[in-house]
């Protein structure tokens, strides 16, 4: 799969080259965090409730190459349920490349769930190759799984009330969790794949370093989710464009989020 780089200069690149290198990834306080979203030209991140119909083959290839580059992949429980997550790196060649780069064959899966409101029948949780850390404010566990599952619990002061008034979903403060992932789990780089409220929480706490956005030549209409949801970002976050790519009519934009 070939990507044509449009900015900062012209070049032909593979998905592996596009995904390479996270700017400033040697942090010691928390993981270096990148988010990755596909979006229609009118701002939707789901068609028929799923993100899959938005991306093309180039998007899928870059999606898997980004996973192959990081220590951990973070996802909200809603996205985990909807997308029916399975093993994060399924391709043996990518797993071997990860090992050659000093990474585990599979990234650590980090699931954010305020209430543990999902069942343990999701393929990711039923693979004995998966290692999963669940960040939650809820007591208890999700039930028996084949995956190795650990829990990090919110302490007092680490939970705010989020969501609409009639749906009081606990919103976790994520910075303490990220510090624990860096200190206790050795997570240096983390890729967040959504959903939109999780992305908004990370941005409000100033925890996003890079923002990957795949823009599809598609109009979906409706009132579905956008890449960032939740309370306003005050002030709005400024970003610096690092690169712009094109493949199959889709644009692939990579930004650095300014502090």
Question: How is this structure best described in words?
Answer:
The chain is of the alpha/beta class and about 260 residues long. The protein has one domain (about 1-20, about 30-255): Dihydrofolate Reductase, subunit A (3-Layer(aba) Sandwich), CATH 3.40.430. Helices cover about 20% and strands about 30% of the residues. It is built from 6 helices and 13 strands. It has helices at about 15-20, 55-65, 75-85, 90-100, 175-185, 195-205; strands at about 1-5, 10-15, 30-40, 70-75, 110, 130-135, 150-155, 160, 170, 190, 210-215, 240-245, 250-255. Residues about 160-170 have low confidence and may be disordered.
Give the helix/strand layout.
Layout: E1 2-7, E2 11-14, H1 15-19, E3 32-40, H2 57-67, E4 72-76, H3 77-83, H4 92-100, E5 108-112, E6 131-136, E7 148-153, E8 159-162, E9 169-172, H5 175-185, E10 189-192, H6 196-204, E11 210-216, E12 239-247, E13 250-257
Parallel strand pairs: 3-10, 3-11, 4-5, 4-10, 5-6, 6-7
Antiparallel strand pairs: 1-2, 1-12, 8-9, 11-13, 12-13
